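Quick one: sequence plus zinc ion SMILES, need structure tokens.
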Amino acid sequence: MALKHQLKQSLREAYARVLFHTGLHAVVDRIMPRRMTILFGHCVDNPDCNGFLPRDMKIRPDSLRRILGWFRGRYALTTIRAGYGLLAAGGKGPSVVALSVDDGYRDNRTDLLGLLDEYGARATIFLETGAMDGAPINWSHKYHWVIARQPVQEVARRYTEWSEDTAAKQQIAALLDGSPDRLAYHVKRILKYEADEVDRDRTFQRIFAAAGGDEEALRKELYLSWDDVRELHRAGMEMGGHTIHHTILSRLEPAAQVREIEGSKQAIERVLGPGTATTFAYPFGRRWDYDTSAVEATRRAGYQIAVNTHAGTVGRGSQPYELKRLPVDDQSRLHLLVAETCGGFDLLRRFGLDLSE
Ligand SMILES: [Zn+2]
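Reply:
Sure thing.
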């Protein structure tokens, strides 16, 4: 299995390099149907806003410039909503590259907006609206804030002391003697998918406070305010829903899913006006993070399209409530993005060869 995976990775790499370096990408782009490639990330790296967030949530300005610089002129650079409109209208024209950023971080106004101005580009921003409305900041940010200041072993040990969730505590305790990287990975996974949410949020609030954390200071440092959102919207950015509390929708009852999904739309439209929030992003976005009732709630809430975080491009036949996206961060390699964007992997799939992801 490992060998098969390695072989696939090597083939994928070689194919993408050939497309990129020989200019064949332009040929493939012309023969493949018009498509939209939705890129997604979270933050532009800025130590004042997001210094403690993990590397895979950030992109350095120059890395983003390199990507946008390459796509500008070859593709229409726009928001998801505008790009989807272009595809749905049919007709000819360049394919679309839409940029999106999740959660609503403050750098989107202080850094991303100006950077997009340089390329005449705009983006879709998916807002976790509770963070702007004074709801407690979700535990994962407190987790990252604390482990940027204390060894992960210490944080994990404290969790096992202060939590009352026996099953989660036992799992974490069994990992304490392993490597810090392994511990960090598994603690995050256990807390995300297995721990009791109420206990986890309470325990992390306590760990955060004990480490000197201040909820309101963290909120200001990390997230946009509604004034920022108004300014971004006026500047042509699209605001999309991303639930109120950034919860894993598949872990909620249908009625709670509706509250989270509709609630984020209402919060945005209260500020920006009716009909402004028509695109939705499922938090975390893998197929196990949402389910059919969440998709149905999204449609019924009045969102017209929704995106997940599986890799691929969007065509006219794509399911509108499960549009795929490609991650961009400092690890992203341009030739692989280009191979996907030009329709290179879609072309291979027509011949039964799936090298995507
Ligand atoms: Zn998110």
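The mean pLDDT is 95. The longest strand covers residues 96-103.
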